Amino acid sequence: MIRILIADDEPMIRAGVRAVLGTDPGVTVVAEAADGHQAVELVQRHRPQVAVLDIRMPGTGGIEAAAEIRRTVPETGVVMLTTFGEDEYILRALSEGATGFLIKSGEPEELIAGVRAVADGAAYLSPKVTARVVAHLASGGVGAQANRRSAARARVEALTGREREVLGFLGSGFSNGQIARRLRLAEGTVKAHVSSILARLGVDNRAAAAVVAHEAGVVPVPSDRLP
User: Which stretches make up the HTH luxR-type domain (predicted)?
Assistant: First the structure.
């Protein structure tokens, strides 16, 4: 059973998230919070596998809460709920260790998929979120965009061939188990590759590595996804 905490300052949003998650018999909501400070306290108390946080809340927001959760309860994964127009907040959240990003207006199935992916140790970026992040990174003009792509490709070139393969599937949101099945490797081997990839790319988490993968153009086509 995947244990979840929900944090949002709007009761209706919390109720909606709880209702969607309630359709999955393998998921249970163990606590709810109305702000980031309360979310951190409840995560420390209940130790859920995943905390679903609104990216902006009064007082202590989701980004600050994500950083504190990462520091004090690193085994809890963080999924951020965002709206369009919050690109800079998403980039900040990436740097603070959030590994899942979902649009509030997205499909209910995406919420369940994102929670399950993060609980399994994978990164999950809604396709809409990924597009917004990459577009934001590219917003500095053609020259800046080319420089970022070139820099991303140079970073990826420093990886081994196998690490580049793993990074590509990581960029698609695959879990270690899914990558292992796709590449016919032991899951422990994939985990070691992921650790090496993060270190070589100089990023702190899988979601940040996924952005590099998208910028470098090494992400497989969506039809290549496995269950």
Answer: 152-217
The model's pTM is: 0.69
Q: Are 103 and 185 contained in the same domain?
A: no
Range of the domain at 195: 140-224
Q: Provide the CATH number for the domain around residue 70.
A: 3.40.50.2300
User: DSSP 3-state helix, strand, coil percentages of the chain (rounded to 5)?
Assistant: 55, 15, 30
Question: How far lies 116's CA from each of 3, 4, 21, 24, 25, in Å?
Answer: 10, 10, 10, 10, 12
Please list the rounded mean pLDDT of every run of 10 residues in the chain (227 residues): 95 94 95 94 97 88 90 92 69 74 83 89 72 58 62 91 92 82 92 93 80 82 47
pLDDT in tens, 34-69: 999 999 999 999 999 999 999 888 888 888 999 999
Phi then psi for 91, rounded to 5 degrees?
-65, -40
Q: Are 76 and 98 in contact (CB under 8 A)?
A: no
* 84-111 per-position pLDDT tens digit: 556 667 777 776 777 888 888 878 888 9
Q: Comparing C-alpha atoms, which of 121, 124, 122, 99 is closest to residue 110? A: 124
Three-state secondary-structure class, residue 77: strand
H/E segment holding residue 32:
strand 27-33
Q: How many residues does the chain have?
A: 227
CA dist., res. 13 & res. 42, Å (int) = 18
